[in-house]
Amino acid sequence: MTPVELSRTVLHAVRRAVDEGELAVDVPERVVVAPPGPGGCGDYATNVALQLARPAGRPAPRVAEILRPHLLRSGGITDVVVTGPGFINISLRSGAPVALVEEILRRGAEYGHSDALAGQVLRLHAAREVRAVVHLDVLCRLLRSQGALVRATWEGADEGAAGVAWASGLGVVPSGLPDGPGGCGDIRGDLSVRGRIDIRPVPAPADPLPLGRDAGRWALLYPAPHDRPRIGDEHLVQRESNPLFRVRYAHARTRALLRNAVDVGFAPEPGPEAVDGDAQALLQALADHPRILAGAAAHRAPDRIARHLVTVADAVLPLLPAVLPLGEEKPSAAHRARLALAEAAGTVLAGGLSLLGIDAPDHL
User: What is the dihedral of CA 167, 172, 178, 181, to 10 degrees?
Assistant: First the structure.
């Protein structure tokens, strides 16, 4: 069971409790599941009981206990424990990591995309400043990945090439942000548009164009919007000290392993053999990806994606030396499962970089 599926399962449990008269509340549109915090247990936790306590007129622990048997009747859940002020901690069957890898490979670059913001129509506007426009560009991609419709405008988009050379050089179309995959042009029809949302990150202290498109965008996006970005050659060095290099290097390594596996004569196949102590950090990072995208969209914070990609890269790199068989060793189920896990990590890295407007080369 993936985090998205678990979120739906929790919603279904709430709906069953309402239908059976155990809770008198409106079923929320969505609930959040995340790794357990301090004092928690299991694979995931949710605060849905705290969310429903006030409208239900009951203490959150009591709401959690009402939901517990409904969750236990759902396939894929082995245990439900209520902790603290009413957090619901959920343990999944051992096949959950395999299902996670399968879902990532099935959905590809769209893993983590959802309809959480479906029906919302947003109007974004940025000043004529390089960091604001790049943030606008990424937020359009991100909000659309969560189902929102977006109208985007920025000052200076119609001033001609001389006025917006820095924008086109960083992959933002001078005439505006176009319709199509990853774009977000004007919304047409009778849909009502919310009040304008101004995109105003702390301006860049220097011109990022000398860094090139990818490093320039990363330099503008990696810091939080309220932090001052650093525009320097540190974004170009091919060393571990450069987070962008680590992310792109990890992606390229996963793609190289897939090519090398073909030469050896085996293909990726998700399986429990890849699930060991060393892989837990990576599996958790991959499972967190949908939550990170949803949070980045809700808070207009593309830096959350960039930092999450670094987490995925740092988790997958130590595992890669054990993917291919060594010497005369024959490919085993463990090798195929590790290769599938590596491919899933590379898929998440490529999808995240694409949302940031940064290339994910297969060779580096």
Answer: 180
Return all residues near 314 (Cβ < 8 A) that are at least 6 apart: 246, 250
CATH number at residue 261: 1.10.730.10
Q: Are residues 87 and 130 in the same domain?
A: no
Report the domain count for the chain.
Answer: 3
Asked if 67 and 135 sit in the same domain, the reply is no
Across the chain, how many H-helices and E-strands are there? Answer: 11, 7
- H or E element in which residue 87 lies: strand 87-92
Q: At residue 194, what is the residue type?
A: R
pLDDT value at position 118? 83
Torsion angle in degrees (nearest 10) through CA of 337, 341, 347, 353: -160
From 161, 187, 210, give the residue that closes a domain. Answer: 210
Residue 68 domain boundaries: 3-93
Token pair listed for 192: 């009502």
Q: What is the CATH number of the domain that holds 19?
A: 3.30.1360.70
User: Residue 214 burial (CB < 10 Å; 0-12/13-18/19+)?
Assistant: buried
Q: Are 312 and 305 in contact (CB under 8 A)?
A: no
Query: How confident is the model at residue 156, as a pLDDT?
Result: 66
8 Å CB contact between 128 and 155: yes
pLDDT digits (tens, 9 = 90+) for 17-51: 998 899 999 998 888 888 787 888 887 899 999 99
Q: Is the pLDDT at 201 greater than 90, yes or no?
A: yes
Residue ending a domain, among 189, 210, 231, is: 210
Q: How confident is the model at residue 192 (pLDDT cuts 50, 70, 90)?
A: very low
| 81 part of a folded domain | yes
pLDDT digits (tens, 9 = 90+) for 125-184: 998 899 999 999 999 999 999 999 998 888 866 654 444 566 778 888 644 444 433 334
> What's the length of the chain?
364
Tell me whether residue 236 is in a domain: no
Residue closest to 289 by CA, chosen among 33, 10, 22, 14:
33
Give residue 65's identity as a one-letter amino acid code: E
Look at residue 234 and tell me if it is in a domain: no
